[in-house]
Amino acid sequence: MSTTSKLVTFSLTASDGMARCGRIDTPRGEISTPAFMPVGTAGTVKAMYPEQVRETGADILLGNTYHLMLRPGAERVASLGGLHDFMDWQRPILTDSGGFQVMSLAKLRKLTEKGVTFKSHIDGSAYELTPERSIEIQTLLDSDIIMQLDECIALPAERKEIERAMELSLRWADRSKTAFNNQQNRMLFGIVQGGDDAELRAKSAAGLKSIGFDGYSIGGLAVGEPQDVMFRVLSDITPDLPWDRPRYLMGVGKPDDILGAIERGVDMFDCVHPTRAGRHGHAYTRFGVINLKNARHKDDHRPLDEASPNPNCRRWSRAYLHHLVRTEEILGAMVLSQINLAYYQELTAGARAAIKAQRMTDFAAETRAAWAAGDLPVL
Amino acid sequence: MSTTSKLVTFSLTASDGMARCGRIDTPRGEISTPAFMPVGTAGTVKAMYPEQVRETGADILLGNTYHLMLRPGAERVASLGGLHDFMDWQRPILTDSGGFQVMSLAKLRKLTEKGVTFKSHIDGSAYELTPERSIEIQTLLDSDIIMQLDECIALPAERKEIERAMELSLRWADRSKTAFNNQQNRMLFGIVQGGDDAELRAKSAAGLKSIGFDGYSIGGLAVGEPQDVMFRVLSDITPDLPWDRPRYLMGVGKPDDILGAIERGVDMFDCVHPTRAGRHGHAYTRFGVINLKNARHKDDHRPLDEASPNPNCRRWSRAYLHHLVRTEEILGAMVLSQINLAYYQELTAGARAAIKAQRMTDFAAETRAAWAAGDLPVL
Predict the structure, then answer these.
(1) What average pLDDT score do residues B22-50 get?
(2) Which structural domain range is residue A17 located in?
(3) What is the pTM of this model?
(4) Which residues bind substrate (chains A, B) (predicted)?
(5) Does A159 lie at the interface with B, CB-CB under 8 angstroms?
(6) Which of B88, B320, B329 is nearest residue A316 as measured by Cβ atoms?
């Protein structure tokens, strides 16, 4: 596959061991990698204005095909000018293919060679999602980076079942490539499946490479397996992927998952965790995760982290944040979502700088040591 | 009462009929009147950052003694530097006395001459609120404008019951004045009670004036009576209040309540309505109130109000706002709270300008005509 006429391109700027630093250039702006993509499930990153997402340092966000096809509907988004105008986020957007949420959320799913039919978890109405329809939806949304439809299964699973889903995903990859029709203003990513089986993962990667994609996603992880299994799969698979294409680990994860995956050669991440954890009163900081609901904070006049570059970590006392969480005030969800997204961006920005400086190992060790040292002592 | 050494002062700058334009100068900043005060019930204006509240044009916000005494507690707020630092709102704050919420929210209330004992609606723990304790709490919160404890009763009510509550409120006013001890950096407001009875209202106002307060609140309205009754009470009572003191109509209201009250000589307002309505998908605009949940908006590419000075009214389609409301996204609550608070500020700013220009009657008529004309025709 030639990318010479592509308007969306990837280039590596540095590497350190397996870890890579690069950028994706798009007509809507540049994405520095390793990149964390906040999740804007239904056309909004929950509890955040678009400009606040950008101010955390995010270059790109993720939209969910499944959620958007149900509400407000892909054709409606297109008639309103596409997802960027709809939500007023004028920078790049990556969309998933819908397959993962169909499997995890929809009711009465039926999977065939052609695709998947399912009923909406909202109102029970029937939909069909095929590789072709998924590309069509993502094109209607005007996504900048499009995913093939795949079948993602939970782990642990029987090898035969993992293999069947991987083979189906490969055939869908081929159909997705055809349906995508080499649009120059977007990237299309294939998705490596194969569960925790190294041989099946390698076979999936080889199949995708022979089809040829603009980037390679790693799916079917963070679906129930321990972190060491995930890391082993990543260590096995990234050497099989083209060096000059971005690698995206789907739906991952907590900060230590991301750090370990960067060390294993992953370039892109998304996860609902930072915003969901924020809505539940958890703050990610250089001290690790802090549960602000805990009574230890109720009289604590200290800021969350007085050395943080993020003003929201410095302007209020822990007692105030505790109060917001305990009283279930929306501002608590807003502030903690912002704090967590900013911390994720601080982490990936730190990794980028470390890779450029050839000190990724030290950066990872220092970061883990700070997490392990834990929070400030109780006041 | 002398106010010569007060650090918080009120001055009138213009009047037009009964309507007045003025300002309150405080060490924490100036408050232009007529003023609408957003309600920061539990130390946050719901779904708004403090700077977003300020950007709508608010000079002052209201904190609720009842909510804050229960959580996080007045002594705790004081030990954390006062309410302004606690929530990081460095401009003036007015606090109510707690009486209204004790009556409307608390469990097992018991009212005596001394004060009111009650159990928290949150955890059932017991509290006592007296005129002296209410002043103490509001001083601990470091409020800039303090209310006396009063007894507020719902309408309709028997005259005898209205009179009893009004007389008790007057005695509590006297004790509040003594407990307040003429603090120079705050104002103390007495509260006119007397229900819908002109004679009792006049008696209440006379009693308060003879005690002498920095400002006069009008309580016991918007408690079940029709708007014309409220307006009649206001028309009767404001001429009885000192011309050189601010008048504050407590807990009111919708935009047309506020407009009518300004015409009747009221200077200050607070209400949870704009933020609560926002959380329920209602937007206040120059077209009147718009229910964004309504399906008429689902394909509407037009902004809420393209001529609004508020960017949030122009940046997204009605279809997007409809989508946020339908999917119950927090951003919907955030944006509509902001839009409503900004509209309330636009309304009071418009009234101030009209009073200065001696065209309040025209401004009120034009505003009401625009509301009556209603929303844009369905697309």
Answers:
(1) 98
(2) 9-271
(3) 0.97
(4) 96-100, 150, 193, 220
(5) no
(6) B88
Residue of B nearest to A50 (CA): B331
Total structural domains within chain B: 2
Is B144 found in the same domain as B124? yes
**A318 and A288 co-located in one domain:** yes
| pLDDT tens string B290-307 | 999 999 999 999 999 999
Instruction: Give A335's contacts in chain B (Cβ within 8 Å).
Output: 49
Q: Which residues of chain A have pLDDT under 70?
A: 1-4
Residues ≥6 apart with Cβ < 8 Å to B116: B99, B102, B109, B110, B128, B129, B130
What are the backbone angles phi and psi of residue A256, rounded to the nearest 5°? -75, -25
Q: Which residues of B are catalytic?
A: 96, 270
Q: How high is the ipTM of this complex? A: 0.97
Chain B interface includes A320 (CB < 8 A): yes
Here the tokens at position A25 are 């250039």
Q: B21 and B163: one domain?
A: yes
Q: Does B317 touch chain A (CB under 8 A)?
A: yes
A343 assigned to some structural domain: yes
Under an 8 A CB cutoff, do A79 and B49 touch?
Answer: no
Query: Could you tell me if A181 lies within 8 Å of chain B, comparing CB atoms?
Result: no
Q: Is A220 annotated as a binding residue?
A: yes
Q: At what angle do helices A198-211 and A159-180 cross, to 10 degrees?
A: 10
Q: Indicate yes or no: CB of B72 within 8 angstroms of CB of A298.
A: yes
Q: Please tell me whether residues A206 and A297 are part of one structural domain.
A: no
Question: Does residue B314 sit in the same domain as residue B350?
Answer: yes
> Is residue A193 annotated as involved in ligand binding?
yes
Distance from CA of A379 to the nearest CA of B (A): 13
Nearest to B201 by CA among B219, B215, B176: B219
pLDDT digits (tens, 9 = 90+) for B253-299: 999 999 999 999 999 999 999 999 999 999 999 999 999 999 999 99
Q: Do B90 and B210 have their domain in common?
A: yes
Q: Is residue B376 part of a domain?
A: no
Give a yes or no: residue B73 inside a domain. Answer: yes
- Greatest alpha-carbon pair distance for chain B in Å reads 61
Q: How far apart are the first and last CA of chain A?
A: 60
